[in-house]
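> Could you send the Cytochrome bc1 complex Rieske iron-sulfur subunit prediction when you get a chance?

Sure thing. Input:
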Amino acid sequence: MSSHDHDSTRDVVVHEAEGHESDGRVPERFTDPGDAPHQLRRADQDPAADKRAERQVVTLFTISILGTLTFVVAYFALPPGETSATMQRSNLVLGLSLAFALLGIGTAAIHWAKSLMNDREQHEDRHEQRSSDENRAAAVEALKAGAADSGIGRRGVLKGALASALALFPLTIAIPLIGNIGEDWDVSKFKHTLWKKNTRLAIDPSGRPIKAADVTIGSVFHVIPEGLDDVEHPLDEKAKAIVLLVRLDPRDLTEAEDRKDWSYEGIVAYSKICTHVGCPVALYEQQTHHLLCPCHQSTFDVADGAKVVFGPAKRPLPQLPITVDDEGYLIAQSDFHEPVGPSFWERLK
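Output:
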């Protein structure tokens, strides 16, 4: 929509640029060329095309409705479950149905505006900030005319599809919120993991206990507590207890006095959960001893207490105190001495 000054001639004054001359004749005014000729759409000329466009818009709204209903059904019928397969299935169906719910509304609104609503250029003269009563009345009439022009009053099916799509879509937001009411919000569970004194370190995912002799300098192992599969909710417990085990030359280690006995002959174990937002930290650079989080590039120095050397993380990775048992297997001395993962309100540090 364009707007012009309250000048009946709509002329625009053109001033000669300072220090610039063309042929000595500079026009003082030129006439507003106006709008380009209006191009009629197919729906404007052919009633069949108009009806076809309306059906297309209704179809898009229907897709949105089906997407919303699928989301609601899938939320209850396909819970995440306890395995990666069920989690993947649930997330896939919920994500696709939500995408169709949103895509249907958005594309329907665009197609409706482009094919069925008035597309002529509109002009409005500038007025004082407060319009006169006559102009206000005219504005109301213009709104009524716009509603009539959109055809919503006489397109009953389209109006019903629009109302249904907009009314149902909020369910995709409300259902997950309502479904979480009564869930377990005991955040104290994040302060402890399955690691405890004498728990053997086992290779993920096989669960085979690992000996110190198996860990050579420069090697990296992803480690879980032995017997993880025998506990309730193993995936939840693994998400908290997963550890990265690395062996360095003991001469390269910089250890605090109170942590010198937390490693074993250069073998150190740190939580694999980034202290930024909880992504899995798993990219180890052997030459620099740096551990990189692939999500936001937080970088930790394994040789120096897993301190942050780059990125948004603010805390080092928690270290798991380890030693060996009588058979040479690596074992935990205790649980982590601090909560793993990102910060939360109830943390003391």
